Amino acid sequence: MDLAPPRDGKTIEKGTSLGRDAWYRLQKNHLAMASLWFFIFIVVVCFLLPLFPFVPNPNITHPDLQSMPALSSATSMEGAEVFYLLGSDHLGRDIFARILYGGRVSLAVGFLATAVSLSIGVIYGALSGYVGGRLDAAMMRVVDILYALPFMIIVIILTTYFGNQLWLLFVCIGAVEWLTMSRIVRGQVISLKNQEFVEAARSLGLGQSRIIFRHLIPNTVGPVIVYTTLTVPAVMRLEAILSFLGLGVQPPDASWGSLIKEGADRMASDPGLLIYPAIVFGLTLFSLNFLGDGLRDALDPKSSKD
User: Fold this and answer.
1) Which of 33, 45, 140, 222: CA 20 to 30 A from 92?
2) Average pLDDT, stretch 106-114?
3) CA distance to 95, 155, 163, 242, 293, per residue, from 246 (Å)
4) Helices (H) and strands (E) in the chain, counts
5) Residue 51 contacts residue 84 (beta carbons within 8 Å)
6) pLDDT computed for residue 305 by the predictor
């Protein structure tokens, strides 16, 4: 606790916020902080590094420079000087560039689909928990029905009807991931809606929508932040599974999931095609999960085992 300069011989303690206390506790979790900085590094590298001219177009092929080893340079038959940091694939494309551009797609799907599921789940769960009664029961039965639907079959039907479009990933994944978020928020709202600050808001004549969006939802931000950090890797895994099955990003574009599929198909002849994207993808997922665990302990010290 910070101490202010003495006034009239008395020491005045400066107040602090819950966010600052949580950040202080998170800083003491070295694994969570290392995961945070690693994830920031991955995002910056994937989105900013391809803007520089030394990163080639990931779809440019050099058939005469197939399966080049890492740290190799050569001149293609077109006269282009190329340097392969992680080698080239079976079409002479730069593996490093494809990992960067594939990371853009995977991270974008993770962020945007999570934002969609976050928006739907928080509003739906808050309304259900605050209203209660029969409407709450009906809304939760809708969630149970959606849980029971076969996700993969729906994706196959949609891709067959609309084609392999990237926006389908956001629709399909966002339509599934908000379900758990709504249950978490509903439980938090049920525990908060009869507390004193909500009763005070009602006594002041505030409307239900203002109570929900200005008082209840902000007080659920801790569990929402924690689950969001766990939703992003879950969404990225779903995208990777769909791409691995051929239902996601289509060639020549790539995501980490499609790159892993290409590597798995040619693992015997060129293991680097599988190893490099799998390592980056795995480390990114681990960092997000460790960060989520650290945020859970920082925002709710009672859940910490220490």
Assistant:
1) 45
2) 86
3) 20, 11, 11, 6, 32
4) 11, 2
5) no
6) 47
> Exposed, middle or buried: residue 184 (CB in 10 Å: 0-12, 13-18, 19+)?
middle
> What does the block give as tokens for 154?
């729906």
Kindly state which CATH superfamily the domain 18-58+94-303 is placed in. Answer: MetI-like (1.10.3720.10)
Angle between the N-to-C axes of helices 221-244 and 272-299, in degrees from 0 to 180, rounded to the nearest 10: 170
Q: Note whether 101 and 50 are within 8 A (CB).
A: yes
Nearest to 263 by CA among 144, 84, 99, 62: 99
Q: Which two tokens stand for residue 94?
A: 């730069």
Domain layout of the chain by residue ranges = 18-58+94-303
Q: At what angle do helices 272-299 and 256-265 cross, to 10 degrees?
A: 140
Instruction: Tell me if residue 94 falls in helix, strand or coil.
Output: strand
> What distances in angstroms separate CA 165 from CA 106, 141, 170, 243, 249, one per listed residue?
14, 31, 10, 12, 8
Contacts made by residues 133-142, CB under 8 angstroms, sequence distance 24+: 136/186, 140/183, 140/186
Query: Which of these ranges, 7-11, 134-138, 211-215, has the smallest mean pLDDT?
Result: 7-11
